[in-house]
Fold this sequence. Notes:
Blueprint: E1 4-5, H1 6-22, H2 26-38, H3 42-61, E2 71-79, E3 84-85, H4 90-102, E4 114-115, E5 122-123, E6 131-137, E7 142-149, H5 151-154, E8 158-162, H6 168-175, E9 187-194, H7 197-207, H8 214-220, H9 225-238, E10 253-261, E11 268-275, E12 281-286, E13 314-317, H10 323-326, E14 334-343, H11 346-357, E15 370-372, H12 397-407, E16 411-414, H13 420-429, E17 432-435, H14 441-445, E18 448-455, E19 464-478, H15 485-505
Parallel strand pairs: 1-3, 2-6, 9-10, 13-14, 14-15, 15-16, 16-17
Antiparallel strand pairs: 2-7, 4-5, 7-12, 8-11, 9-11, 14-19, 17-19, 18-19
Helix pairs in contact: 1-4, 2-3, 11-12, 12-13
Amino acid sequence: MAPIRQDDLIQSIADAVQFISYYHPTDFLRAMRAAYEREESPAAKGALQQVLVNSRMCAIGKRPICQDTGIVNVLIDVGMDVRWDADMSVDDMINEGVRRGYTHPDNVLRGSVLEDPDGKRSNTKDNTPAVIHYRVVPGDEVSIEVAAKGGGSEAKAKFAMLNPSDDLVEWILSVVPTMGAGWCPPGILGIGVGGTPEMAMLLAKRSLMEPIDIHDLIERGPSNHAEELRLELFDKVNALGIGAQGLGGLTTVLDVKVSDYPTHAANKPVALIPNCTATRHVHFTLDGSGPATFEPPPLSEWPDIAFEMGPDVRRVNVDAISKEEVATWNAGDTVLLSGKILTGRDAAHKRLVDMLDRGEPMPVDFAGRFIYYVGPVDPVRDEVVGPAGPTTATRMDKFTRAMLEQTGLLGMIGKAERGQLAIDAIKDTGAVSLIAVGGAAYLVAKAIKQSTLLAFEDLGMEAIYEFDVEDMPVTVAVDARGDSVHRSGPQIWSGKIAEKIKVAQQ
């Protein structure tokens, strides 16, 4: 039994972090490909096309699938007979691996981890520390799952202490629509049932690392209650018609995982955690023979499709846009933007609105312009900007009215739905909210031809930049009349799916 060397664990973690940043797991690729091939909703199919094209580009270019390169989750099983050749703690070895992986000069990953989370919220700059969960098990090996979990999907995690008599399926079907599209469906739902509150959450998180096998389960049939729940929820969640990016479609979830644990007689803890279209995780084992090696999926796993826009696409020069033209756009329209757009997200918006409240002048002229809610990855080599997909627009809702009414901002670009607060402000001011596809960050970045820092340099990825874009693909999420595609799309497709089910049952 050879000891496990410190450098082997550090190198394996660093390599795993890099590997999952640009390779989707093979089972996920196959499930996404199947969803794309059977999708009937044009909007959802277009979104899935962008995700798959982006995924292939990232695999070839070895650049991040998503600009949100996640917070690292490490699930580690340590054999009781393991011997270490190390002078660092296991936590410190793992975090050193994360540090090296995220600062690799050939593929710099975005640092998204903030310390002092309810205070200064200072970026640690290297994405440490990881969130680490241990189990001590029989044997002389160390088994490790490394996952990078994006903030958009983590933000949609749900938990409830149900009464023993409460219906679990009913609760899940009540909360999934409230998650909106910020978790970038289609993805996987991990569900933990039982134990205690923290155990239920960990069960849900661990279940997301299991292989996608729902169609195998459909073919062989369930053998226990957890598998019965998986099948019921898979059908009923997809019947909601939420679809890719929340635009309405046939596939909202690629799989549903259910893990349970004995619980107190008075309780039924239930946790739900989603994985998004940037699902990233890999498993490896160390036995003392050296660092882990990772085998990339063959390119044949990706469909041979090109990014193409439909015949109804609008090409728009944002440098010469008017309110009158924006008023002709309809929710669900596809638009290709060219010209100069601004960037800014949570921290920038908070600072801007505070300045407005104090009567201070704006550092940038927003009148008649579009702002992109984005925190890109740093560029490498000859890139203008690294992968630059959208962040969840809903988080900016509380700032929207002030920005539209007091700065003259005309349009916003993010991902996911807008809440009623923002929709009302958009309608009252004749503005527009657009979405770019979450999970297509590298593809979007290719449309950015120049990047110039304008304000708030201290905010790092959240600073205000000016991007010069060419044919940046977006969809009208909320038009100037207040119509929202995230409301109409799922409503239409849930009806179509219900009709399909009715016909199949006749």
